[in-house]
């Protein structure tokens, strides 16, 4: 979105002696003025240099690299905000026909809000060579200060625009979508509530705070998912699907759906609309008609055994399902029509497929099956087609049950057998994914239990947050500035039958466990 742009023209930079020759060297001497640090070839012949020097092209490259990293942070913040605002735009647009004039006024305000945030990002993309050189020479830490200033400016901007929109929304408080709009506005305000005491997200820790454990359920829950606003939670109880309202960490049952005749295994919720997908051996699509009514598609069947995992791509037009029948099926998705169309099958695994993950560019798919040496990399060949590339090699003889891409060229994999309790990091080196053993995390040792494949690894990029359920523990894991991973917090549930998820914004964790036979809600707080 934003690209670094130096204010000065590189060709116009010259030495203080005005020799009219190109600058070739920079003197990294704090005692010199800004212009005196720039040296041409003639300066070098006539100047005694006591301090360290560096090539001009090298310093240009170093400054540009620093600017790119800064803009990546800026862009993550801006893009996350714009995504939430665009969801708000979509909801308001659906209500537009009921009160066209008033809603048009709100849409105008929202567009101005987006433009305001984009302008702030654009301002961050310009920098001065001399100022950045001064910061580098004096080893000042202004980048962090400037980033915190930007966070506060966005917080103030969001507060300004939400203050304008709240009164206009109050007119429509009897509408079903009114609550969703207010929750989206609340998320935009919440995003920076703790930023003043957090400093940068990567420098803080996340801790779990218990909110509620009062809602009981005797039948086993295999899966939990949330809508993108965090106001709807969907869970399972054996063959039933339960729809819950979710507000401030509290759940309230709204509807029970009973179309499936066998225990529901997997759920995937759309991030773009109120639709979700459920699976047993067959797959069904669900679409919300109104607050209490959902319609169900016909059952789609291509697998010959129970489906163990499902993921949607970011466009939500491709669904990948892995099964006990050792295959991965790829489906064309149309959530507007509540419909799936089978496309093709990926068949290279020798055992049941239990975990799937796409990288951020979605040009690679990693799959994990039960058994040793059962991690496969698949690569995109066409718009909808993936092809087998290779089995990933690793150093231990154990099998694992969960795999997750964290970056385009990095995924994590967790062991599943009794004797090993580790999280392994695989990184792309020379075209092949290999273990980075320095980044391996030792989890709590437990040689009494196997791991369970349900409750997949969850990654929220905006909060630098990884949630891992391994055996009886739930771990909160984050990446340090040096690229190493650390455990921020952990929760022992005293059972390996734990099934849960977190809200899209990473604020709440909800799980059901066999010991308590209840839903537990925790808030994830930065401290």
UniProtKB/TrEMBL annotation:
Domain IP5PC-F beta-propeller positions: 303-380
Keywords: WD repeat
Keyword Nucleotide-binding set for record: no
GO biological process: iron-sulfur cluster assembly
WD repeat placement: 300-341
Gene Ontology CC terms: cytosolic [4Fe-4S] assembly targeting complex
InterPro entries: Beta-prop_IP5PC_F, WD40_rpt
SMART domains linked: WD40
Protein name: IP5PC-F beta-propeller domain-containing protein
High-level lineage: Eukaryota, Sar, Alveolata, Ciliophora, Intramacronucleata
């Amino acid at each position: 979105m934003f690209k670094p742009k130096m204010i000065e023209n590189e060709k116009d930079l010259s030495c203080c002696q005005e020799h009219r020759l190109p600058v070739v060297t920079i003197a990294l001497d704090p005692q010199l003025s800004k212009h005196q640090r720039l040296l041409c070839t003639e300066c070098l012949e006539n100047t005694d240099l006591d301090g360290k020097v560096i090539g001009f092209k090298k310093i240009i490259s170093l400054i540009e690299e620093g600017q790119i990293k800064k803009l990546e942070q800026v862009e993550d913040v801006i893009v996350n905000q714009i995504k939430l605002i665009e969801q708000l735009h979509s909801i308001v647009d659906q209500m537009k026909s009921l009160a066209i004039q008033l809603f048009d006024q709100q849409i105008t305000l929202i567009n101005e809000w987006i433009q305001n945030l984009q302008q702030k990002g654009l301002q961050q993309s310009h920098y001065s060579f001399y100022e950045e050189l001064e910061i580098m020479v004096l080893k000042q830490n202004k980048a962090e200060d400037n980033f915190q200033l930007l966070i506060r400016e966005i917080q103030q901007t969001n507060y300004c625009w939400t203050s304008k929109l709240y009164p206009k929304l109050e007119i429509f408080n009897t509408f079903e979508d009114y609550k969703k709009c207010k929750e989206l506005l609340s998320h935009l305000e919440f995003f920076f509530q703790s930023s003043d005491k957090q400093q940068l997200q990567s420098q803080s820790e996340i801790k779990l705070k218990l909110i509620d454990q009062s809602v009981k359920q005797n039948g086993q829950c295999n899966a939990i998912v949330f809508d993108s606003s965090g106001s709807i939670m969907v869970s399972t109880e054996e063959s039933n699907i339960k729809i819950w309202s979710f507000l401030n960490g509290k759940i309230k049952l709204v509807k029970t759906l009973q179309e499936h005749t066998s225990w529901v295994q997997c759920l995937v919720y759309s991030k773009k609309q109120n639709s979700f997908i459920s699976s047993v051996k067959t797959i069904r699509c669900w679409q919300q008609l109104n607050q209490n009514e959902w319609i169900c598609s016909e059952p789609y069947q291509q697998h010959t055994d129970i489906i163990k995992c499902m993921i949607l791509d970011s466009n939500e037009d491709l669904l990948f399902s892995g099964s006990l029948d050792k295959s991965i099926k790829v489906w064309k998705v149309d959530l507007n029509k509540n419909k799936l169309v089978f496309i093709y099958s990926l068949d290279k695994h020798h055992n049941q497929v239990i975990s799937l993950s796409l990288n951020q560019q979605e040009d690679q798919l990693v799959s994990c099956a039960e058994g040793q040496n059962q991690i496969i990399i698949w690569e995109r060949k066409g718009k909808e087609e993936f092809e087998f590339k290779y089995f990933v090699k690793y150093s231990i003889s154990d099998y694992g049950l969960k795999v997750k891409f964290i970056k385009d060229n990095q995924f994590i994999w967790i062991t599943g057998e009794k004797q090993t309790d580790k999280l392994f990091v695989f990184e792309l080196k020379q075209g092949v994914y290999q273990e980075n053993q320095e980044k391996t995390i030792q989890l709590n040792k437990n040689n009494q239990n196997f791991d369970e494949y349900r409750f997949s690894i969850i990654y929220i990029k905006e909060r630098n947050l990884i949630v891992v359920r391994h055996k009886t523990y739930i771990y909160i894991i984050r990446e340090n500035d040096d690229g190493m991973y650390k455990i921020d917090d952990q929760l022992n549930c005293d059972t390996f039958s734990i099934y849960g998820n977190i809200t899209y914004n990473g604020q709440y964790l909800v799980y059901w466990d066999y010991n308590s036979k209840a839903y537990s809600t925790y808030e994830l707080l930065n401290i």
